[in-house]
Amino acid sequence: MGKLYIILISFIPLFSLAQGFVPRCNFDSLYSNRMQSLDYRQLLIEEEKAFQIYTQEKQALKNSSYTIPVVVHIIKNESHENWVDMDITDADVYRQIEILNESYNLLNQDVSQTPEEFEEFIGNAQIEFCLATVDPNGYATNGINRYSTDVTSFSTVLDNIKRSEDGGADAWDTDSYLNIWVGRITTGVLGYSDNPTANIPDDEHGFVVGYPYFGESGHESYGMGKTAVHEIGHYLNLKHPWGIGNCDAANDWVNDTPISESAYYGNPVHPVMSCETGDMFMNYMDYVNDSSMVMFSQGQVDRMHYALDIFRPTLQESNGCGVPYLVTQPEFTHASSESASDGAIHLDIAYGQAPFTIICEDTVSQTIVDSVVLSSYGNYIIVNLSDADYLVEIIDALGQTTSLDFSISYYGSVFDSDNFESYTEDSLLFTQSNEWISFCKDSFAANISSNLPLEGLQYLEINAADGLNSFIRDLDIDVNAYDLSFKMYVPFGRSASYTIYHDATCFSSSAAYNIQFNVDGQGYINAAGQNTPFDFPQNTWFTVNQLIDMDRDIVEFSIADQVIHIWDFSSTTGSVNGTSVLDALVFNDKVDSMTQVHYFIDDFKMILSENSNLGYEDISKALDVILYPNPTRDEIYLKFNDASYGNIQVKVFNLHGQVLEFIELNDKSSDDLRLSLSHYDQGIYFVSIQKDSYFKTLKFIIQH
Hints:
Elements lengths: L1 H17 L8 H8 L3 H20 L8 E11 L13 H15 L17 E2 L3 E5 L12 E5 L29 E6 L7 E3 L13 E4 L15 H10 L60 E2 H14 L19 E3 L9 E7 L6 E7 L4 E8 L3 E8 L2 E8 L5 E8 L5 E5 L17 E3 L8 E3 L9 E5 L7 E4 L6 E9 L6 E8 L6 E8 L4 E6 L2 E6 L5 E9 L4 E6 L2 E7 L15 E4 L10 E11 L16 E4 L6 E6 L7 E7 L4 E7 L7 E4 L6 E9 L2 E9 L2
Parallel strand pairs: 1-3, 1-4, 1-5, 5-7
Antiparallel strand pairs: 2-8, 6-7, 9-10, 10-13, 11-12, 11-14, 14-15, 16-30, 17-20, 18-19, 19-30, 20-29, 21-26, 21-30, 22-23, 22-29, 23-24, 24-25, 26-27, 27-28, 31-32, 32-35, 33-34, 33-36, 36-37
């Protein structure tokens, strides 16, 4: 089996070239190399388990639609003898985007070529691609970038087309944009891409197309723009229908694409068979000519949706196809106490046409707190803000508007929390929450459980037997100090680990400190170049707490209310615009022995703290509310975990800051509050809950 596999992989390209055909991409060589690794094969198994659970839990939301912002980088060498042939016009780019939208929304007329026996398997991906209108800095763009280079041909092995230092072009933020590179690439393939779990740098995600195969180029075999359709399939975690070949049962892991032996080229005539069944050669993920590839299967559509929801969720939150920001990088200063009015928002007017009208409204009292007209670009600070929700609108001379909906909190209030009670038991956390996501494309199979050990009703179980399980919670807020805590349970003979990051990216990360809990009941604080040991209780719940002072660069670490260690650290590493930041909390990072990792966490909480006093805040009155289900179709519930509340105000608003619903409750009991949402369009929304000076804002997604 192994020798036969190698022969097939080796000879298919030779056969194709001999017949005048070119393999569309080099995915096979990348995939076959990874399949030699036992760890990678195990990762595929774990990924398949997660996909099956996802499929079961998403049945009610099967008609999901997605929008992906696209940026096209065109790299041309005008000194090359054929440089005129490399000229990709804006019209060519627009047509390529149209082809993508036709193919991914079942609007392509040639889908009628699908043989009758495969018609029932045709899937509509409902994915829309839009050229970016907003660049990573918030400025207007047409989504097309052009670069000159002295590189004759870019290497598919070195991937140098994706780096400006090598004559190519640097990616825009790959979490917010689908990057497409078009240029002259080494012969042998039409283009190339990789799947979301590939171990490649974040800034290399996207795909590359040779210029003769981009858009409607007039190429005899590959001039209908289908190479981009094919490569996006890989970008969204699809494999070739033949998998590793030789009629392997695993194949492409898609149930409704028939098992096939190898690639098809040219324009085959149905029926053709290789593994005792008719082959779906007309599938976009095969190697046939553009005129013969016409459809995705429903099974492939399900896997692309899984990739968008799990591996590439931030694309849906991107403003890449939105309205250019008139204001870039607003910064907030929270109030110093519950009764103080010393909060502020710092605005940088960086785009649009002067003059600019700025209006700030307290959306709780519905009063205007500031209104001004600026005659030119520059900075403006709205001051004297107290604990409340605010809506800032900036309108330029052309009528372009940017709305900012934000909250000013005060030190001592709960900024973020999760007790894991609202999730479904025995289900993966990442299928139920947008707040906990996998770190660096991890398999992330952490599970919600309620078995012993018991702390509350439910908690998060992290077990290395389920996969690597490194997952991340965003901490990036503009405050000077905060108190971060959670409960932990480490069984005898097991270990645990977490890291606080200044900058939590896969290949340029900067750790502030790391905490390890070892099998012998001894832990280590890895910070400031030192390893400080401490003891921790095993086989029982205990509270882990760290009070982080960003002004004085001090961390106070405690276990079970006992201060363990206080140390200095540099919060300027990874700073943004001169503001010291901590980016994220990553559980299960930097673990030495994966086989020993098995622990539990509960009651995650982040509390804003006064930076002038390194001590614990009174949080007895903190607002504690959970929203579920999320995503939802037509309703959400708010679960109030305290015994009772007095007067409560609940607001639902959209991404533009428009308040859609306002509810005022008196003497709210602990019963869950139901909100009907059937009359809202699908999309991203927020619900703000306020009691006195305590508040919480939660994001939710409606998918009809």
